[in-house]
Write a structure and sequence with these properties.
3 domains, Ferric Hydroxamate Uptake Protein, Chain A, domain 1, disordered N terminus, mainly beta, 5-stranded mixed β-sheet, Immunoglobulin-like
C-alpha cells in the first residue's frame, strides 16, 4: 500500500509535523504527542506509588512525643473560674499556645513540644498568675493549677516551678535524661544506648566500646526489669524505630549531639505504648531556637593515653581512633516577639 509523507502541513491553522496518506485515508500526527502521554502516565504512576507508601505507615508508629499541660483555675474561695486565658510560651522558640478554661475551670494544652515553658493565667478582675521555667518532657503531662487573687491583670503572682514537679496525672514509672546530662556524661562509643544502663532496673550484657558509635544492635542487649532484649521499643520523634525482625535492634542510632531528651519508661505504660512489655525509650531530637548555637566534638582513642597491661609484658597495642564533627542550629526566619 502506497504511503506518502509531507512535512510542515497545516490543518485548521494548526501546524503538524507529519502528514501520512495511506490509501484514501489521511492521518495527522503531532510530534511529541506520544512522548507527552508517556510522561503523564509516568507521573501519575509515581503519584500513586507515593500515596500508597504514605498509607502504608504502620499505625503503631504514631506514638506521640508531645506533651500536655493541664490544670484547674479557681478564685480565692475555691470556686472555679470559667473563660480564664492560659498561655504557654516556649522559651527556646518564643512560640505561644493559648486556651481557655471551660465551665468547670479546667483547661488542657495539648501537642506541646518537649521544652521549657513560661505559663501565665489571665482573667479580668483578677491578678495575673504566672510560673516560669516549667519543664515539659517528651510524652509528659504537667499539672499547673492556680488560685487567682482579686485585683488587676497588671499585678502578677509568681508560682514556683518546683511545686509542679510531682507527677499526678499518670502512673507510669519513667526517668528523663535532659540535654545537659547527655552532653556531660561520658558516652563510650558515642552511642546513646549506653545511657540506658544508668537507669534503675536496666542491665546491659556488654560494655560499650569505640566501635559501637552507630551500632543499631546496642538496644538488643539492654534488658529492662529482667525481660529479653527484644522486649524493648525505641521511639524517635513519635515513630517506632524498632526493627520488627531485628530482636530489639533499632533502625537508626542518632548522634548524641542531635538528641534533646531521652525518656525511659520502665512500667505503668499508657495505652499509646504498645507492642512490647519491656522498656519504652522515647527520644526527642533537638530543634531550632531563636538564637544561633553550635558545638564541636572529638571522640579519640590513642595508645598514648592507655596504660600498659602487666600480662602483655608492658607492651601497649597501637590504636588510632578519631571521631569528630560539629553541629550548628538556629532560626531560619527569626521570630518576632510581640511587645
Amino acid at each position: 500500500m502506497a504511503e506518502k509523507r509531507h512535512q510542515g502541513f497545516s490543518f485548521n491553522g494548526r501546524p503538524h509535523d507529519h502528514l501520512f496518506a495511506v490509501g484514501n485515508q489521511i492521518i495527522l500526527a503531532k510530534a511529541g504527542g506520544m512522548m507527552k502521554s508517556k510522561l503523564e502516565k509516568l507521573r501519575e504512576s509515581l503519584l500513586w506509588a507515593l500515596a500508597l507508601m504514605l498509607l502504608a505507615v504502620p499505625g503503631y508508629g504514631q506514638t506521640s512525643t508531645l506533651g500536655t499541660i493541664t490544670g484547674t483555675i479557681t478564685d480565692p474561695t475555691g470556686a472555679v473560674i470559667a473563660n480564664a486565658k492560659i498561655t504557654a510560651t516556649n522559651k527556646a522558640t518564643g512560640v505561644s499556645q493559648t486556651t481557655m478554661t471551660n465551665e468547670v475551670g479546667r483547661y488542657v494544652l495539648t501537642d506541646l513540644s518537649a521544652a521549657t515553658y513560661d505559663l501565665a493565667v489571665e482573667k479580668e478582675g483578677f491578678q495575673r498568675c504566672a510560673s516560669k521555667d516549667v519543664a515539659l518532657h517528651p510524652a509528659d503531662s504537667v499539672q499547673f493549677s492556680c488560685a487567682l487573687k482579686v485585683g488587676t491583670t497588671t499585678q502578677t503572682v509568681e508560682v514556683s516551678a518546683e511545686s509542679l514537679a510531682v507527677q499526678t496525672e499518670e502512673a507510669k514509672v519513667s526517668r528523663v535524661m535532659n540535654e545537659r546530662q547527655i552532653e556531660d556524661i561520658p558516652v563510650n562509643g558515642r552511642n546513646y544506648a549506653s545511657l540506658l544502663g544508668l537507669q534503675p532496673g536496666v542491665i546491659q550484657e556488654f560494655a560499650f566500646n569505640s566501635n559501637q558509635g552507630m551500632n543499631i544492635f546496642a538496644t538488643e542487649s539492654t534488658h529492662v526489669n529482667g525481660l529479653r532484649g527484644d522486649s524493648n521499643n525505641v521511639i524517635i520523634e513519635g515513630v517506632s524505630s524498632t526493627r520488627t525482625r531485628g530482636n530489639g535492634a533499632t533502625t537508626a542510632a542518632p548522634s548524641v549531639e542531635a538528641i534533646g531528651e531521652i525518656n525511659i519508661v520502665t512500667s505503668g505504660y499508657l495505652p499509646e505504648y504498645s507492642r512490647v512489655g519491656g522498656g519504652q525509650m522515647v527520644i526527642q531530637m533537638k530543634s531550632g531556637t531563636e538564637q544561633y548555637h553550635g558545638s564541636a566534638y572529638e571522640f579519640v582513642r590513642n595508645d598514648y593515653f592507655d596504660a600498659s597491661n602487666f600480662f602483655s609484658g608492658g607492651q601497649v597495642s597501637r590504636i588510632r581512633f578519631n571521631n569528630f564533627g560539629y553541629t550548628i542550629g538556629g532560626p531560619v526566619i527569626p521570630h518576632k516577639r510581640k511587645l
